[in-house]
Amino acid sequence: MRQGALRSAPWLSFGLLALLLYLVAVPLALLLVSSFKPTGLPLDAGWSLQNFDLVYGDAGFYTLLRNTLTFALGCTVCALAVGGVLAWLVERTDLPFRATARVMIALPMVLPPFLLAMGWVLLASPRTGWFNQLFKDALGLTQAPFNIYSMGGMIFVETLALVPSVYLILSNAFRNMDPALEEAAMTCGARWPQMVRRIFVPLLAPALVAAATYLLIVGFLVFDVPGTLGMPVGLFVVSSRIVYLATDQSGGTSAYGQIAAIAVTFLVLLLALAWSYRRMTRQTNRFVTVTGKGFRPRQLKLGGFKPFAVAAVMLYFVLAVLAPLGLLLWTSLTPYLAAISWEMAGKLTLAQHSSVLSNPRVGAAAWTSIWVSMLSATLVTALALLVAWTVLRARSLGQEARNLIDTLSFMPLAIPGTMIGMALIYVYLTLSFIPVYGTAWILVIAYVTVYLSFTSRTASASLIQLHPELDEAARTCGASPATTVRRIVLPLLLPALAGAWVWVVAHVMRELSTALLLQGDENVTLAVQLWSYWAGGEPSKAAAVGVWLVIVMTVITIVWQRLSARKDVVFGG
Question: Which end of the chain is more exposed for a tag (fewer CB within 10 A), N or C?
Answer without folding.
Answer: C
